Amino acid sequence: EEGKESLSILEWAQKVQLGAAPFSLTGHEYQKDMLECNASRQCFKKGAQMGVTEVNILKSMYGLITGRYPQGTLYLFPTVNDVTDFSKGRFGPLLEDNRQISDLVRSTDSVSIKRVRKSMLYLRGARATSKIEGIKKTSSSLKSIPVDRIVFDEVDEMDPSMIDLAKERLSHSKVQEESYLSTPSIPDFGIDRLYNESDQRIWVIKCDHCGTETCLELEFPGCLLEIDGKVIRACKKCKKEIFPKNGRWIVQYPERSKDLVGWWISQLNSAFVE
Questions:
Q1: What would the pLDDT profile of 47-62 be if each residue is shown by its tens digit?
Q2: Which pLDDT band holds residue 126 (cuts at 50, 70, 90)?
Q3: Which of 100, 129, 131 is nearest to 116 (CA)?
Q4: Quick count: other Cβ atoms within 10 Å of Cβ 8?
Q5: Angle at CA 227, nearest 5°, toward 222 and 232?
Q6: Is 155 helix (H, G, I), strand (E, B) or coil?
Q7: Minimal CB count within 10 Å: which of 17, 48, 163, 264?
Q8: In Å, what is the CA distance from 238 to each residue of 152, 221, 223?
Q9: Which of 245, 219, 248, 249 is nearest to 234 (CA)?
Q10: Per-residue pLDDT averaged across 190-210, rounded?
């Protein structure tokens, strides 16, 4: 029910069908804290197919359904083609597979605008459509859209001026949530720069043998050992095999959390990538 969060976001998400199976933390245990964190500014430095886009879709839909984002949510992609792919490939099946969500979404003629209860979900591409006096870039698709939350999907591929233009859409919001996610491209740019400025959360895995905690991203490539033709994730101390499901998030710079929460998760932690 709108305005009443009878189910927590985790309880709600586990009732959502995503493709062939309901959403589950199994193999993605690191998603739990991401889902439950309500920090106003967050960034996700991620590997491909790690479920971070999934987390942001669920958070956006849950917030729209429960009334957290009364002015709506803007989901921003690098190009218009990305918008179409997302709308048809992700959003469409989400509605088809989940009656409890589709019943709350009013059909619109556009792939880029959806009404969820009383709020709007805008899907837009971050490409400038014109220049003012040949200098200032602008975009008609990012004008006159008041929102409470913006998700910048693959921010490394976006024009920085379009990111600034999009953020102006939050100026009249009491919530003002910003979420940046991307596979990193080059050092100290885009998502890598944002993460470096954040509280820098890392996923550390506890060893069943000696109790030492290892962050695969910080120990790579030494965290991988080949034993009898098989590659294992290895404890940094005793070199025994460790398992990502036994991990927890550690905040390296807690004094920065109030300004920017940062998550770093790579395919080293994937239960589905060899």
A1: 998 999 999 999 999 9
A2: confident
A3: 100
A4: 12
A5: 55
A6: helix
A7: 48
A8: 40, 16, 11
A9: 219
A10: 98
- What are the angstrom distances between the C-alpha of 223 and each of 33, 231, 269? 24, 10, 11
Cα–Cα distance for residue pair 274/260, rounded to 1 Å: 32
Average pLDDT, the chain: 89
- What confidence category does residue 110 fall into, taking pLDDT thresholds of 50, 70 and 90? low
Report pLDDT for 142.
61
Tell me, rounded to whole angstroms, the distance of Cα 196 from its chain centroid: 17
Name the pLDDT band for 94 (thresholds 50, 70, 90): confident
Give Cα separations from 117 to 68, 134, 216, 250 (angstroms).
12, 40, 42, 37
pTM of the model: 0.90
Residues 6+ apart with CB under 8 A from 194: 43, 45, 155, 180, 260, 262
- C-alpha 50/C-alpha 55 separation (Å) is 10
Strand partners, 131: 137
Distance CA 202, CA 217 (A): 8
Q: Give the C-alpha separation, 249 to 221, whole Å.
A: 21
Which parts of 165-229 are beta strand (E)?
177-182, 201-206, 213-214, 224-227
CA distance 226 to 203: 22
